[in-house]
Amino acid sequence: MIPEIAIIGHPNEGKSSVLSTLAEDDSVVISPLPGETTRCRTFPIVIDNREILRFTDTPGFQNPVRLLAELKRSGLSGTSGLEHLHNLTSSRPEFREDHELIQPLRRGSGLIYVVDGSRPPRQVDRAEMELLRRLGRPRMAVLNCKRDEERFLPDWKEQLTQHFNSWRLFNAHRATYAERIDLLTALTSIDQDWQPVLNAVISAFEHDWQRRVKTSADIICTLLTDVLTLKLYQDCRPGDDEGRLRDRLFTRYSRSVIEMEQTAQQQLRPLFKHNIFTIRLPPHSLLHEDLFSERTWQLLGLSKKQMLLLGSLGGAAVGAGVDVAALGHGLGLFTVLGGAAGMITALAGRRHLKADASLLGLRLAGSRLQIGPAQSISLLFVLVNRQLLFFRHIINWAHGRRDYPEQNTIDLPTADAFTRSWSSTDLRVCQAFFQSLHRSSAAGDLVSVEPMQGLLEKTLMQISHERG
After folding, report:
1. Contact, 85 vs 70, CB < 8 A?
2. Which ranges of the chain have pLDDT less than 70?
3. Is residue 401 a contact partner of residue 182, using CB atoms and an 8 Å limit?
4. Whole-angstrom Cα distance, residue 156 to residue 373?
5. Separation CA 219–CA 235 (nearest Å)
6. How much is the pLDDT for 309?
7. Which DSSP state fits 398?
8. Pair type for strands 232-235 and 363-365
9. What confidence score (pLDDT) does residue 401 get?
10. Which residue, among 395, 397, 394, 393, has the nearest Cα to 414 in the 3D structure?
11. Is 13 in contact with 145 (CB distance < 8 Å)?
12. Which of the two ends of the chain, N or C, has the fewest CB atoms closer than 10 A to its terminal CB?
């Protein structure tokens, strides 16, 4: 049995927005004008080529008071009450939308009743709730506040408790992945017979999300590999203005990196089914900043503590290698010097890139200039944080937020550098990955991506479970 959930309510309460967000479907027609939905439309949820759940968008109630009065007069309820209303509304034009909206209920669907919790309950709302209670289908109510107004919530909660098996606050314009799963989980409580099927649906959703996270980590790892091993050249003949050629080469390099990043983000976006509408980043997003700007590197690069730790570890590793090669005659001197050099290099990563492009490997090699592979591990952290930030934007950009232009940007907490909370073990994974890329670039060695990919998957999943 494929469970069907009808989204029901008064016109312009946000039914289509709730459906679009739950189904992750950009094709749901959403309009700020009431009464735009006049026919039922079903949206199947397909995972691994298998339909596991279907949501049905319905027209809004037009005559709930009259329908309730008729149902009371007939003395019928449940299935017989549904058939009575079906027969009553089938041949009367004024009941056309009411007739349409009860069709999924006749098929045995459950229902989510959507109300705008930012306004007070009205008599017509009470009639709709009582009507649905008498029809007896498995039901849940969703308080979808269309404005930042909470003073009517206590009145709504009192009303909903009387008429529904369960109710939830759910903002269709801000709902995160975790909140969508919470709502689906709550649906299991509306009918005991549905629990096994809905639990299987939730399990399929979670499995599908893990697959998307793994693919996202693959995309980010590929971006890191491509950028951190990127090498570009510029011929430099006697008499040429070397400074101008360096600037030109740096510009080519930065453009190439930006194009690679945009390609990766274009690959990430359809994973989360944003196929039609453009995601608008909030004005304060750090993704608007130039990838190579000083501010980007200060906010998304390594912290001072991390730089000192990584610089010490990285330089010490090189120095220790020198000591071994000298059969111990260095008496640890190279280790100490290596650690100091590593710290200096790491700290230099905070300087402006164009002013010190040697951090990106810019140098004169014979008769030509070369830039790359990047010499500063800070670029890895800047890239990682920018992709994690983009990931958080797209997974939390609710599909149902299209009908409110003034809210059409993401309003999540100010972005932090996600990597600032990474442990020393995590930093070592990054360092090993960075060094592996350098060996690969120099000697063609294979790059070990599994630990880095695992670290990214862990962080992406943590971001997925954030709540707004």
Report:
1. yes
2. 26-36, 274-279, 313-359, 398-416, 444, 468
3. no
4. 60
5. 33
6. 81
7. -
8. unpaired
9. 59
10. 393
11. no
12. N
Q: Are strands 41-47 and 50-57 parallel, antiparallel or unpaired?
A: antiparallel
Predicted local confidence at residue 22, as pLDDT: 85
What pLDDT score does 50 carry?
87
Long-range (24+ apart) CB contacts under 8 A made by 332-341 are 339/311, 339/312, 339/315, 340/315, 341/315
Q: Would you state the structure tokens that stand for residue 87, as one six-digit string?
A: 């027969």
Residue 447: per-residue pLDDT = 74
Q: Is 5 helix (H, G, I), strand (E, B) or coil?
A: strand
CA–CA dist 234, 252 (Å, integer): 10
> Cis bond leading into 373, ω under 30°?
yes
Q: Are 113 and 135 in contact (CB under 8 A)?
A: no
Helix (H, G, I), strand (E, B) or coil at 463: helix
- Strand-pair category, 363-365 with 139-143: unpaired
Residue 234 identity (one-letter amino acid): Q
Record the tokens describing residue 435, joined without a space: 């060094």
The answer to whether the beta carbons of residues 137 and 109 sit under 8 Å apart is: yes
Question: What pLDDT does residue 336 have?
Answer: 36
pLDDT at 402: 55
User: Where does residue 444 fall: left (phi above 0), alpha (psi -120 to 50 degrees), or beta otherwise?
Assistant: left
Sign of the dihedral through C-alpha 97, 276, 225, 289? negative
Determine the angle formed by the axes of helices 424-443 and 304-325, rounding to 10 degrees.
50
pLDDT on residue 459:
97
Residue 326 confidence (pLDDT): 32
Which of 438, 451, 430 has the alpha carbon at shortest distance from 310? 430
Alpha carbon of residue 305 to chain centroid: 29
Q: Are 412 and 468 in contact (CB under 8 A)?
A: yes
Please answer whether residues 123 and 65 qualify as being in contact, where contact means their C-beta atoms are separated by less than 8 angstroms: yes
Rg (CA), the chain: 29
Return the structure tokens found at 187.
């649906």
Q: How far is CA 394 from CA 17, 137, 313, in A?
A: 17, 35, 35
Question: Vertex 366, ends 361 and 372: CA angle to 5°?
Answer: 15
Both structure tokens of 317: 């590793």
